[in-house]
Amino acid sequence: MEHLDLIISNGKVVLPTGVEETDIGIKDGKIVQIKKGITNKADRVWDAEHQHIFPGMIDVHVHFSEPGRDHWEGFQTGSMMMAAGGCTTYFDMPLNGIPSTVTQEALYDKARLGNDKSFVDFSLWGGLVPGNERDLELLAESGVIGFKAFLSTTGNKEFEAVDDITLLNGMKTIPKLNKVLALHSESAAITNWLKAEKERKGKYSADDYLETRPIIAEVEAVERAIYYAEITGCPLHFVHISSAQAIDKIEQAKQKGMNITVETCPHYLLFNHEQLRELGAIAKCAPPLRKKEEQQKLIALLIENKFDMISSDHSPCPYELKNPKHHNLFEAWGGISGGQFTLLSMIQLALKHNIPFENVAHWTASAPAKRFRISDRKGKIAEGADADLAIVTLNESHLVTEENYYAKHKQSLYIGHTFPCKIFLEEKL
Questions:
Q1: Domain-embedded: residue 32
Q2: Cα–Cα distances in angstroms (integers) from residue 226 to residues 103, 173, 220, 237, 258, in the given order
Q3: What is the mean pLDDT of each run of 10 residues along the chain (429 residues)?
Q4: Do both 412 and 298 map to the same domain?
Q5: Same domain flag for 240 and 359
């Protein structure tokens, strides 16, 4: 009888077919048995009675800023934070580091840092920016998980938004490389023009910021990208979609058979524009937190399974760039720090809205694994899969504090929020 490294016994295991009380046997980092009453000897046995065992989250959208801006967030603190939130694999976006990941050399340099420092598995996105269309093939051959482009102004001189010709050229090339293009979809023309109008009038409040990034700007960019994908056949992944109207456009494209997936983020589901009014820059992101009625529409769409997956869009920065006393909200960094809380957020929503836990596992693990072609080993609790697991108790709550938030910088929309569940960390096994 095979000697195992670990047996997790009596847990409520979240399988694709539902929650089942069973045991999990693990050997050499792989799941080798799933059945009730495993009798093998093992180095360790963890009694998970009353605990839920989820597949480890796969977060396809995080911003660690190494190399060049590791004082914002780096692989070490970032991956520790992700692990503490039940995330066992993440995909790091190509911007915010210096240099951006738009060449093979930059990709290799970044990968070396990640391999040295990351506590959990990761992959890297490559970038599509003006002037690097010829780099796409080498980036694909070198292992990028996909490509990312911005349709709105980035605020990052190292990673510029694409013009329409660059976008079309990239979308012609990417399907030949068997990759996916992820898009930040807000119209640069609309958002930049509205911002200039506000600045001309000296208006910088939370309401003013929201008005410069209206839902129509997201819808226009999504629709344009879909038209371009019809011409080029490029697979698309829409990131952090924040409006029901944009989802309607994406649904129409899916019904036509187009190769498209879409994510949203927990902050659009748990919070709304009132938090931007109350907290200022800490709650600033792009697209912005929407008004409460739009938040409710997004929750309804989630319940209807209109989102393929959930990601954090963890986008931290030093305190001085997120100072809540910023008089001019437009000058503050736009990003939510919160990668540790995605799985907890989805469990909270599941408990509140009677969403089956297998749906949570689908959005946070199996759908990302399938979309990005790692489902042979990731994204599910199954024999032969990697033993990437998150142990969750519903018997304890989790109050987010600066002490138990493991990101490098502690200012976050989530500080002070209480989740009705808690993740057990590995040292407790």
A1: yes
A2: 26, 16, 10, 11, 9
A3: 92 96 96 93 92 98 94 95 97 95 97 97 97 96 98 90 97 98 98 96 94 98 98 98 98 98 98 96 96 98 98 93 76 93 98 98 98 96 96 96 94 96 71
A4: no
A5: yes
